[in-house]
Amino acid sequence: MRIQKIIPHILHHNLEQPFESSFSTFRARTHCLVEMVCDNGLIGWGECLGPATINAAIIDAMSSMVIGRNPLDIEPIWLDIYNQYRDQGQRGVIQTALSGIDIALWDIAGQHFQAPIYQLMGGAFRTSIPAYATGGFRPTGQDHAESCAKEMAGYVAEGFGAVKIKIGYGLASDLATIKAVREAIGPDIELMIDANHGYDAIDAIALGREAAQYNIAWFEEPVVPEALAAYRDVRAAQPIPVAAGETWHGRWAMDQALNQRCVDILQPDICGLGGLSEGRKIITLADTYQVRLVPHVWGTAVALAAGLHFHAILPPSPPSHESRSPLLEFDRTHNPFRQAIVETPIEHHQGRVKVPDGPGLGIEINREALQQFKMT
Ligand code: NI
Ligand code: CA
Fold first, then answer.
1. Which of 23, 163, 322, 366 is deepest in the core (most CB within 10 A)?
2. What pLDDT does residue 226 have?
3. Annotation says 348 is catalytic
């Protein structure tokens, strides 16, 4: 079996209602999928976190190192690409592009051995994952507290036991939003806040001290991810557990953050950090430091499927009767192609999502939907 071609697909949908994180405005949903075709007809799929057009261009550039090779040589292919691009890589879009290739290789391996990826990676500790609803961005031109409280109450009504909202729009506005959301969802729902690094340490500490009264499960990306010392400051000076890691790609970046005690919760993203191969190494790293691992997921059903296999193989930590399952990040913001591109949507039932148990990623791509949302 040899790899014949690699096709990046850029999917795109213009948003009728733009929304904002602390630093960017989303006017469209755009994601990059990777299709890997073998000479025996097997096809693997992967997905890359981050800017789709740049990921697609890098995948085109990387494809000459992959075409003609045995797709079961996953680690040798990974290391060859990583090594080739190391000097300008290590982190960022080189690593996100490599992630898409790596996930597609695992999908092919699963189909070849007729086993789900979690089985090939040593077996599942769980077959369904409790999910939390991610949303609560600020709709452009709307009041955040009001829209966010209404949106979160909807997720709770759908059966989610945990929700995450976006903050980073200023201290007064954020505290009003957090209060409104806590009142809307009641005392028993887990509530997380994500600043998308929209604060400096001074404001993040002030926010954390004040927001703690609303029982916040974690404070995500309070400050810019490069500033590890600022993470330490925020973690030391306010009571909410600090979470980050979606932009720390690869085991070296993760190790620095863990070693310097920057976070209580590590959030690696399989479509960003270098794929499932590298993800497996980061599991060992987090386990060694005994830092809680709650993966980041942001993308289509392909990213969700890869994320679910990754969740399945996370060892219970600590290995006790009452050990909690890592939560699955379940994006609820508008994206019509997220589920349309697979034949069987990966949906939640009362806030839980089943790990696909078919060969490889366990998904089948809907070619019509792929065509419909493909950027031309
Ligand atoms: Ni739309
Ligand atoms: Ca985040």
1. 163
2. 96
3. no
